[in-house]
Structure formats: structure tokens, C-alpha cells
Amino acid sequence: MSELPENLHYTSEHQWLRLEADNVVCVGITDFAQQQLGDLVYVDLPVLGRRVLAKEQCAVVESVKTASDLSSPVTGEIIAVNSVAVDDPEQINVNPYETWLFSVKADDLSEMDDWLDSQAYLQIIE
Questions:
Q1: Does 2 map to a domain?
Q2: Which residues pair with 47 in a beta bridge?
Q3: Does residue 16 lie within any of the structural domains?
Q4: Would residue 37 count as lying in a domain?
Q5: pTM of the entire structure?
Q6: Quick check: 82 and 55 in contact, CB under 8 A?
Q7: How many C-beta atoms surround the C-beta of residue 48 within 10 A?
Q8: Does any domain span residue 25?
Q9: CATH code at 87?
Q10: Which pLDDT tens digit goes with each residue over 60-78?
Q11: Which residues lie below 8 Å from residue 82, measured CB to CB, with a gap of 6+?
């Protein structure tokens, strides 16, 4: 497994999170998740402008083995989706920490309290 980037946050559902300017949270899946899923063949991302609640299912990644739901880490509005990931899902397998899936403008960053740092996430996957 590759090293976990320490500049990211993580969820117990194997998503990585990057906090950006203006309360924007960029979301992707971890290397552990893509290894467990296998070769990704399909990505379904939320519609721009959609309002989501924290922990609400809003996207799906499918592999040759299974499908996995992704949830929003915060309550807010979907402000960006990565069309490259939709057009070429294998990029998630190749560069999981560089291939983001969607971004949410958070209403309230107090929901970050549930996020894990790299060391806490490492304990979950070991």
C-alpha cells in the first residue's frame, strides 16, 4: 500500500478529504478502497448544485467486483465534479490521492470533528 498523505483527512468509509479555501471539501477514495474494489469501471457523481447532508449517499464507484456508495463528509452544496474520473475511472486506481471525485461547499465545518488524521485511519486499515 502506498503511504498515506498526511495533508489529507480520512473517513472510516475509506474516503479521503482535503479542506480547501472557503469551506470547500474535496473528496476522493483511498488507496485501500481502490485496492479492495479492484479495477474501477464506472463512476456516478452527484449533480452540480445538489444539496447534501453529512453522511448522505451521493455518489457511486463500481468495479468489476462490486459497487460502493460514497457519502458527503459535510452538509452543503456540490460545487464541482471530476469529469475525468467519470470518463476514465481507472485514473482512481492509478492515482487515488490525486483523482478527486467531487467537492462540497460546507455549511458548517464543525462536522470535521468526525474526520480522521492519517495515523487514526492507518489504525483502521491495518
A1: no
A2: none
A3: yes
A4: yes
A5: 0.95
A6: no
A7: 12
A8: yes
A9: 2.40.50.100
A10: 999 998 999 999 999 999 9
A11: 45, 99, 100, 101, 102
